[in-house]
Amino acid sequence: MKNMLEQLRKERGLNQEELAKAIRVSRQTISSIENGKYNPSLDLAFIISDFFEKPIEEIFIYERRKK
Amino acid sequence: MRKSHLLSGVLFLLAGITCIIVALVFDTKLNNLLFGVSGALIVPGIMGTLKYFYWTAPKNKKKYAERLDNESIELRDERKEKLRDKSGRYAYLLGLVIISISIIIFSILGQLEVIKNTNLIVIYLGGYFIFQYVVGILIFKHLDNKY
What is the ipTM score, two decimals? Predict the structure, then answer.
């Protein structure tokens, strides 16, 4: 799953530490999500979506499996 | 920091000192054990007491609140929770493998008479293996029904 987290974070002028504090996760989790190593839970995805005031599908882009 | 931290630190310290006194006053076969236990109680007792005074000092109050907040974030961080669960799973599987290998090694050593009375060890390890395996299944079934 691709995501726009890094871009949105930079647009807000936040570093990973600040974003992590704001949504109450560890800095490593932000880094892992940005690098595509970790897909957040639905809960965390909604928290991120609320934080950036954007619909979830604009932040997380799900690539459907080819049949 | 709560007063209970200070209380537990002092209690550990007192229990450790009691163990040393008992070991010094009464000459028993348990002396070595008592000295060992006293060390294991006194060190965390001193650390706990010192920690309490350090973190309750007015100049460290803000730093302590920050530390608590960070600890709470780290503890509830979903990625770390997932990784903890995963590492527990690997540790469980590795444990089962090590028990199995130990059973084989002790059986061989027993047969070759390198170690005597290995039967008890093999039975214990076998029981422990079955316990781990069965408890793993039971907990999984319980969680499966719950969620």
Answer: 0.88
